[in-house]
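#dry-run=false #mode=assembly
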Amino acid sequence: MDIQSCVEVRNEWDIVSARQLGRNMAKELGFGNVDQARITTAISELARNIYLYAGRGKICIEPIDQLGRKGLRIVALDNGPGIREIRKVMEDGYTTSGGLGAGLPGVKRLMDEFSIESTVDVGTEISATKWLR
Amino acid sequence: MDNLIVQMINENQETLKNNWLKEVNLFKDKEIASYSTTLKLSEETDQQFFELLIKHINYHDISKDGTLDQFFDQVLHTGLPLKYLTQGLQIARRVILNMLVEAEMEQEKLAALYREIDSWLDPILNRVVENSSQIWERTVSIQKTALLELSAPLIPVFKNISVMPLIGSIDTERAKLIMENLLNGVIKYRSEVVLIDITGVPVVDTMVAHHIIQAADAVRLLGSTCILVGIRPEIAQTIVSLGIDLSLFPTKSTLQKGMENALEITNQQLISNE
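#status=ok
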């Protein structure tokens, strides 16, 4: 689908604009309050990861429609250092930056579908989908 | 400046002006009309702009009498887009070059005059950009200060009870400020209980939660209690999904409930006069 919008993430304020974009799109698609909060929080986590670990990257948000099943997909892309131990980062409490270590596993729980691909020294692509119920 | 070019421009001033106005109007219709319908560009501004440019051929110093700076300031402050000025300058360059090309002179002479024009218009263009970026920088820095002032106030409400209402997104800089104000305020007001109200915080992600946990922990080290209030239902759900443990300190749904709790902790009561 072509109605994809992207936000470049280079500083902390871009995280806010990525969130705003996601919230607006979620609202337009008819997501309820709780799901809107889930989606914006997930975007916030992914965008912050880009800012913290990769320095720069982008967040793309697109509405999806699979055989009448509607939803919203968030794709986070960066050309950063990549993730060495994907299994570890998906564990609760694992952090390399002194944070809570709840970001990625949290996003997985906030969203319905989650996939992560990362190559060391090449970059990371994370995609997460929420279906409209 | 080369006398020849000054002379040529002065002699052809009327033609140049008409050509310039024509092109500027074309540009205005196309670009600025769609920019904002409320902005009205008067013919007067255009006239003034061009006359100032011509006037400054004879000056070597663009800030000589300040009229140019004044004009730029005036235009930028009325909310006209910067591109009106930059485009105006580019059009001026174009119409003058056209005039030179039509004059059919030797190539070397033409190149020399071309450089003259550049040395006349480029400083003006630089000045325009400089002025406008200064205006922006000033605005941004004023707003930043204003924002910081509003950022994280700690308000003493009752004896030993203070409230910190948080509104808007929390970034690293603000989080630092929250921590500082919180700890300083707890000492200053001798607060036993501090209520942090997050009703106005749109998103509570792990980073925001982390900062709140740290702040509450620091308050605990000072011997006081921190109560987190204003947790909306959807925020509660996302916090649970994220797996964030906020059980180290009490939380309440509203400021009112938090206040009741705080009064209890400090052994105080509100008594009505009835």
